[in-house]
């Protein structure tokens, strides 16, 4: 019976993917590659075919790539129906229908949700609307920002020194613009990598001429009578002139369209089991609804089965492939999504990479190289085990860190390594901020053990 | 009399033409340590891969304390400081970065790709020269002169000096062979040292010229040393130049020769290559797996006691990483003994991995791709005259000494 259903599904079932970006595209390709011949529909609210985001804060800002041409390479012909430029507005779980904002409905036998995240906007709406205030998540954001930067911008203020904010600051400095970075924590990248590495990042900012302001928050954006942003007010009562403000305060998960659907979806994302099947709001796993990419949160065996939310390119790809596989295979062939979190960034000419879950670590050890030289390998420890690694311009050692995490290798690292320096002989506190304080910029968020989001209110509707 | 050890049989010249059955035997004991003075021999793909990324593994000869290690140090122990292939970070990284600023992106993004036309020209000229006979020696007439010409142009070494530097390169290369090392003939070791010094002195003359009169070549750029890491010392420039000169052709000659030999043994792929020259990319990758020019890395040690598959390896031991055995590890590859350029995960250890991963890989790939595609296209009805062909003695840089091939003619 079940096997018959899978056979039928693979042959002539209807699969709908909501979110036509990295995860959505890779899932669609995997479905076809694994022999799915039924109908395939991709729904995306952006009017563009899937494009790549990481270049938007790197090569594009530097003028080395056009914001209009970061299309994702296609691995195969898809034979799919594309519904671009129209958001999904609701989900009817029992009726197996996706409701579109234009009033249409799309029925599915299996659904993949890959709606990702969006940039957290500046919280004061009228200030956010000032001319010259930008966020950076989409192609449109990137076109608007690059055009403005090139059209004679003079002073840029970046609010938030996570990875994205730091990359923007780096690119602006390279373009010769004056840049102020305002960060609530004591240093850049603190949410993602902790205070010790943050201090290294702070040096990078300062050396490259960034006016870095830490331990401050932005209290207001001030506009001129023409409605153009003029200055930024900080909590230390200083005022910084600016004609461009880039708001880089992390992201919000695109789950609002699911509210009331009965799915375990909320501000922390959509919870799924390790096989990418979504939980409903009661914490019961669904059979026909799968999730992948930035919007998902799923338990990871290597990290105590905590639910992880990962805003990582590589995670979106791997999870999409696993979800697609599991959507069209029999129960016994399902695979868990066991991707090792891995992230990269390039800023101020330095290649930064991490594996594992740095914010889980409470201690850090520089096992190779030196932070003063900005070339090093650091590992994070938690309860006597290595849980993460970070490299600055030393990516070839990352694989070793990964293996240590996979093996639950002991921390601290007592043995010598090639290029072990005196500073690396002992573990130091990694210095992450109190997890109860909001930080923007962690690219991995430990989002607890509960699959369902308690804050969700179930209001049956739509049918 | 006991049977010779597996390591001895692998280095034994008698087994050079087909060491693969020995490697299969080796993989049955993935961490093999036969006798006290023997190296620890690692033959499984995943173990090699992971040791190449392990920061407890060193390429620096001064960390070797095991017996048999002394001779190993000697070839590099010559007045010239060790080149970066025999150094650990941070020195390795600094020298490699400076060398790279004269070779590849971001400083010289066009250096290799810009040579494409020139490579085609050299290949065309050499193949034209084959037209006179019906039997050719692919090694002497093509696979050797091609990469030598290329590395000479790249570095800025006069091509006509080849017979001079040849006489110094040969003993250095021979000293990389564990068989000759184990013999530890002091005379032999001294000769290798002298040859390396001579080669260095020869290159010093060229570097002096380039300092006065820089040109568009790597010696000029190495000597000028403009970059965030500053300049190399004169001695560092020389040992780097020696490394590049030798690594730049002693391996590629074998990749091209092994390539042609393998294609002649698998004529269906020779035919396909003739029809689809783009297949050269996959063919070269699969060759690097199936017949890798660097068969093993015999120069590693560990700077602390380690354990591989539960086998303890004491600090300072000699460790051999058997790239060619890992490349045919059934734990890693489906049908590993089959030459199959169509496999969907074309991966290999042929260029090593980790921080010492081949520096010249982009050049080596391009050379081999162009060479094999053009040989396939232009040689009419090529046939192997001797199978197996005669081999070079070296067990590390393994390949045929000659590859006699009969042809009906050479197409324009
Ligand atoms: C500027 C920038 C730089 C980055 N740099 C790096 C980096 O260096 N390294 C790294 O690992 N990661 C980086 N990332 C993160 C990486 O791009 C993401 O992890 C990846 O895009 C996630 O893919 P996704 O498909 O899950 O989500 P997304 O790419 O966010 O796609 C979701 C799609 O769904 C659409 N959508 C949302 N709601 C609806 C709806 N209701 N109906 C229809 N469609 C909807 C969205 O508009 C979007 O097109 C960067 C991201 C940005 C923005
Ligand atoms: C088919 C051709 C080639 C093969 C199979 C090959 C293979 C290898 C291997 C296996 C290593 C790793 C050594 C180790 O880990 O100890 C290496 C390193 C190296 N190769 Fe190659 N190589 C080839 C061609 C070249 C060329 C053309 C050049 C120069 C232009 C070159 C320059 C180097 C250098 C400099 C190193 C040392 C890198 C380091 O220590 O960081 N090689 N090569």
Automatic annotation (TrEMBL), chain A:
The keyword Phosphoprotein is assigned to this record: no
InterPro entries linked: FAD-oxidoreductase/Apoptosis, FAD/NAD-bd_sf, FAD/NAD-binding_dom, FAD/NAD-linked_Rdtase_dimer_sf, Reductase_C
Domain Reductase C-terminal: 343-411
Coiled coil regions, renumbered to chain: none
Biased composition (Basic and acidic residues): 417-428
A Pfam family matched in the record: Reductase_C
Domain of life: Bacteria
An MF annotation (GO) of this entry: oxidoreductase activity, acting on NAD(P)H
Entry keywords, A to Z: FAD, Flavoprotein, Oxidoreductase
Cellular component GO terms, alphabetical: cytoplasm
Region described as Disordered: spans on this chain: 413-445
Cofactor: FAD
Limits of the FAD/NAD(P)-binding domain: 14-320
Flavoprotein keyword on record: yes
PANTHER family from the UniProt entry: APOPTOSIS-INDUCING FACTOR 1 (PTHR43557), RIESKE DOMAIN-CONTAINING PROTEIN-RELATED (PTHR43557:SF2)
Protein name stated in the entry: FAD-dependent oxidoreductase
Originating species: Streptomyces griseoluteus
Highest classification ranks of the organism: Bacteria, Bacillati, Actinomycetota, Actinomycetes, Kitasatosporales
TrEMBL record, chain B:
The entry's keywords: Heme, Iron, Metal-binding, Monooxygenase, Oxidoreductase
Residues in the signal sequence: none
CDD domains named among the record's database cross-references: CYP164-like
Source species, domain of life: Bacteria
Pfam families: p450
SUPFAM superfamilies: Cytochrome P450
An example Gene Ontology molecular-function term: monooxygenase activity
Keyword Metal-binding assigned: yes
Gene3D superfamilies, alphabetized: Cytochrome P450
InterPro entries the record matches: Cyt_P450, Cyt_P450_B, Cyt_P450_CS, Cyt_P450_sf
Family, similarity comment: Belongs to the cytochrome P450 family.
Protein name: Cytochrome P450
Organism: Streptomyces griseoluteus
High-level lineage: Bacteria, Bacillati, Actinomycetota, Actinomycetes, Kitasatosporales
